[in-house]
Design a protein that fits this description.
There is one protein chain. The chain has about 600 residues and is α+β, with helices and mostly antiparallel strands. The protein contains twelve helices and 36 strands. The strands form nine sheets. Strands 4-5-6-7-8-9-10-12 form an eight-stranded parallel barrel, surrounded by five helices. Strands 17-28-18-24-21-22 form a six-stranded antiparallel beta sheet, with no helix packed on it. Mean pLDDT is about 95; it is low at about 1-15.
């Protein structure tokens, strides 16, 4: 074990609502226990923020914590960050305060959160910059972002009459690196821009992670899914005067496409929770309500060199389900926290009745994508997503090689992440890092070779953060490199309703993929769950809003469509199917997230 790191009494350091001394937390001088729940404004429709916040209060919590996703606010470098509409984090914080709860803000700039690129903008990570370090190229960009963000948080601190009681310094930095100069810079960047509330770090409960991620004079919190007693002992040895604070208690877990649906049993979760809050311990339940990775914001992880993409649902087997339903875990956690007041929220919100609606194929894939104009990059090599300034979506690469008569081997040497390959408009097949080769037949003539590359999510955790997307290595015909490419971005996440309508309008279709439309008549908007039996994989829009990705490999079968996305009367659901379109859109009244598998995350 490394030497213990002592700190001064935090009462002399912190000037905000929360202080600590003698291993206990105080709020304005009164003994206090932080009972927090994670709820991300960017994963919940703004019209439902207040409903979900009230459900957290009903759970017995006194605090809400949220990350701030930089790339959600500033997807393009040359445009100022936005703080309106869905991105109005100040409105979210004020709403929490109006419901009588405190707020903990975790501004990063790196947040992990199974969110694309860990919240870092791809326009920044696409450069030759050492992310999450004291590299001036990184801290300068973060400083400009903090100039916009942090004063907004500072104005909502308790000293200003707001609900913000604590702010996190970076995020689980000890799982990534050991640049303490950067951590000190981050802490100073918050203080210099007006943060006076309690500052804390959060890391896994191991010496390795705590050595890398903690700072003298700043409260050390931990993140864990199990073994709170061991974490408490470790912190007591290193920080004997500090209170035991678990900044993330993983009472559930997220899912990857093609893997099981992770759940955690109620007894397991509540048993660990009781161990955390024993003897005055403080906790944040991660997630209390997970919400949804709408659009293309879901992140990805790497396992043994292979990408594992996070599904659209971020239900996370949380006490409050993706659609707000109060689960058995909710009632067990509520009991463990000692909450006994009446519930203000219904156990479940209304849903539309189950129905089947025809899904009408309107346009072929390449024709529909080509109907939305975008600038083309022409160069000897295919352009990456980063060169095109594209964060998410697809890129269509076109070349015109002459291929001799006979059978040949077409190889995509480094494709990130999945590609559909066409020769003269005919689909040859799908290529990915595990299957990079396809047969191609030549006639001696020039072939129009089109490769549609799909980004399946940017890595959100570990050394793979910031990895580029696209055709990153040469495309080979046998041993010869194909040169001379036109690369056109397909910015699906940025398409307007008019552009989506243009893509749909270029029919009639002759293939089995492309754009399809279903019409829904709704008397009174309510939640629903969309399924596409018979379809393979693609994207779904509801009234022009990109709901997210579906994929027959599961585990997730249904996409949650919250009531605010629908309107009384006619509604349009648009589907972009990449491989095999079914003929039906189903409305279901329950989520189907896949066969469950018990999972408890542990640090070794």
């Amino acid at each position: 074990m490394s030497p213990a790191h002592t700190t001064t009494d935090a009462a002399a350091v912190a000037a905000g609502a929360l202080t600590w001394r003698g291993g206990r937390v105080y709020r304005h001088g009164v003994p206090h226990r932080i009972l927090s729940g994670a709820l991300h404004y960017f994963r919940v429709h703004p019209d439902l923020w207040r409903d979900r916040i009230r459900r957290l209060a009903d759970l017995g919590l006194n605090t809400v914590d949220t990350y701030v996703a930089w790339n959600f606010h500033q997807p393009r470098e040359n445009e100022a960050p936005r703080f309106d509409g869905w991105r109005d984090v100040e409105r979210f914080i004020r709403t929490v305060g109006e419901e009588g709860l405190d707020v903990i803000v975790r501004p990063g700039p790196y947040i992990c959160a199974e969110w694309s690129n860990g919240g870092l903008p791809s326009w920044l990570t696409g450069r030759d910059v050492a992310v999450r370090s004291s590299d001036p190229a990184f801290t300068s960009a973060v400083g400009h972002w903090f100039d916009e963000l942090v004063p907004r948080i500072a104005a909502l601190q308790t000293a200003e009459g707001g609900p913000v009681v604590a702010v996190q310094v970076e995020n689980e930095f000890g799982s990534f690196g050991d640049d303490h100069a950067y951590l000190r810079w981050n802490r100073q960047a918050l203080s210099a821009r007006g943060i006076r509330e309690l500052l804390f770090t959060a890391d896994g409960p191991t010496d390795l992670m705590l050595d890398g991620g903690t700072l003298p004079g700043t409260l050390t919190a931990v993140t864990l899914g199990s073994k709170p007693e061991a974490a408490r002992r470790l912190l007591a040895a290193r920080r004997p005067d500090e209170p035991f604070v678990v900044a993330e208690f993983w009472n559930g877990w997220f899912d990857h496409w093609g893997k099981p649906h992770h759940v955690r049993g109620v007894e397991s979760a509540v048993g660990t929770l009781r161990g955390i809050i024993a003897d005055g311990g403080s906790v944040s339940v991660y997630m209390a309500h997970g919400g949804t990775n709408f659009g293309l914001w879901a992140g990805a992880n790497e396992h043994e060199g292979r990408l594992e993409s996070v599904v659209t649902s971020y239900d996370s087997d949380a006490p409050i389900a993706e659609d707000g339903t109060l689960t058995a875990k909710f009632f067990a956690v509520r009991e463990a926290l000692g909450a006994s007041g009446p519930l203000r929220s219904p156990a479940r919100l209304p849903t539309l009745p189950p129905a089947q609606v025809p899904l009408v194929h309107r346009a072929d894939l390449l024709a529909g994508l080509g109907a939305v104009p975008a600038p083309t990059w022409t160069a000897p090599r295919p352009a990456s997503f980063e060169q095109l300034g594209l964060d998410a979506g697809m890129v269509l690469h076109t070349a015109r090689p002459r291929i001799p008569a006979g059978e040949h081997r077409l190889t995509l040497t480094d494709v990130r992440d999945r590609a559909l390959v066409f020769a003269d408009g005919t689909l040859l097949g799908t290529a990915d890092p595990d299957s990079p080769e396809l047969p191609i037949r030549g006639t001696g003539d020039v072939v129009r070779l089109e490769i549609l590359v799909e980004n399946l999510g940017r890595v959100n955790y570990g050394p793979g953060i910031g990895r580029h997307k696209g055709l990153l290595g040469p495309v080979l015909i046998d041993r010869r490199t194909v040169q001379g490419w036109d690369s056109t971005p397909v910015a699906l996440q940025e398409w307007t309703s008019a552009e989506l309508a243009d893509a749909v309008a270029v029919g009639p279709p002759i293939t089995h993929a492309g754009f399809a439309v279903a019409s829904l008549h709704v008397d009174t908007p309510a939640d629903t769950f969309l399924a596409l039996p018979g379809s393979s994989r693609g994207l779904v829009w509801v009234n022009g809003f990109l709901l997210g990705r579906y994929w027959e490999i599961g585990p997730q079968t249904t996409l949650y469509c919250p009531a605010p996305l629908l309107r009384a009367g006619e509604n349009t659901v648009t589907v972009l199917e990449l491989e095999r379109l079914g003929g039906i859109l189903e409305l279901r009244d329950r989520p189907e997230l896949g066969p469950p598998e018990e999972y408890v995350e542990e640090f070794g």
